[in-house]
Amino acid sequence: MFIEVRGVIDAKKGGRSYIIFYYNGKRYRLYNGKHLGLEIQPNKGELTQKKISASIELLRFKTMQALEDGWNPEEGNYIASDALLEEKNEKCVSSVFKSILESKTSSGISNSYKNDLTYLVNNFLNFLTKAEKDNNISELRSDRIVEFLDSFNSSATNYNNKRRMLSVLFNCIIERGYLLENPLKKTRKQKQKVVLNDVYTDGEFKNLLRFLQENNNDLYVMGLIMYGCLLRPHTEILSLTRGNFNEDFSIITLGGNENKSGKIRKVNVPEYVREAIQDRIPLMKKDNTNLFTLANRKFNVGYFNTLWDRLKDKMIEKSILKANQTIYSIRHTSAVKIYKKCKDVSIVQKMMGHSSMAVTLTYLRSLGQMEVESLLEYIPAV
């Protein structure tokens, strides 16, 4: 028989906080989680008052749980029953994250996103101590999550991307009922500096295409498809197979799992693209033949970036590239040209394959198009 477990916080310098309870008339005062086999140390290290209180509350709760499970402190340390051990293992941090990852990677998300999630979860679990991984998911401290995210502080974009993916995983954990609130909700995004992918002028783009055609045909074909078909290079273009083209190679069709918007997407193939791939067409006899490998496989997701990086210094040296012109500047150049022709954001959205109008508006504003041109009529006449 035990009497309710209480926590006692000693705020004095050098004081020690503890939990206290009576069992069969005998008083027990405990200062850490050793009796439970847990790494709960409210008096170890330089902890804030808030963290000491949280540790004592956790120690109190876990001790109550052990006593209710029939633990007799007179017999030594607590050993959980099989039922509790099974429940603990199911809800421990490592098991929960591995289960969520398995669920996400078996869904219809893109391969690149699957790889990113797998990388993030593996790194997160490697970052945590063994005790933290074995603890119940509800005991995972938010300051440790923030500490993990800080390791991706090389740029605001990198930090925010990892924060967003981790938040997705925690939302799945909440849906399963393991947590009541996303621990990342109280963390802040880092402010990102807007980096423009400068568009190419007509002359610059012709020089770029001429250089790519002479130095790397895969990049040349990618550039033309990106420019004329408005597809994304590292996922949509890299994965193109014979099955994505119609009979005369005038239309490309992407399934919902083959493009970022998640919807079926059809785009026209300009004559100059068909001319660029005409020597590949006879070799693409099966639907699963990839446009670039000409086999039933595709190159690594970083293939185009690797090729581009090998030629980048030479392109800059020859003044073919400016500082902020990248692979994605090709797609941005098309977006700007379309907008200047039609002045209709909905057309740009449809042709770019953006999932919403908001994405397109952000896209054009970041390129410095909409605000500047919309102010032309207000310039005073001389």
How does this model look, in words?
By secondary structure, this protein is mostly helical. Helices cover 48% and strands 7% of the residues. The protein is built from 16 helices and 5 strands. The protein has a 3-stranded antiparallel beta sheet, with helices on one face. It has a two-stranded antiparallel sheet with strand order 4-5. β2 and β3 form a beta hairpin. α9 packs antiparallel against α11 and α9 packs parallel to α13. It starts with a strand and ends in an 8-residue tail after the last helix. The model has no long low-confidence stretch (mean pLDDT 83).
Keywords:
16 helices; mainly alpha; single chain; 382 residues
Short account of what is shown:
The chain has 382 residues and is mainly alpha-helical. It has helices spanning 49-68, 82-91, 93-105, 111-127, 130-134, 142-149, 156-175, 202-215, 217-229, 233-237, 271-277, 303-317, 328-342, 345-352, 357-366, 370-374, and strands spanning 2-8, 18-23, 26-30, 251-254, 265-268.
Largest sheet: 3 strands, antiparallel
In spatial order, strands of the major sheet run 1-2-3
Shape call = elongated
**Approximate helicity band:** 40-55%
Catalogue the unreliable spans: none
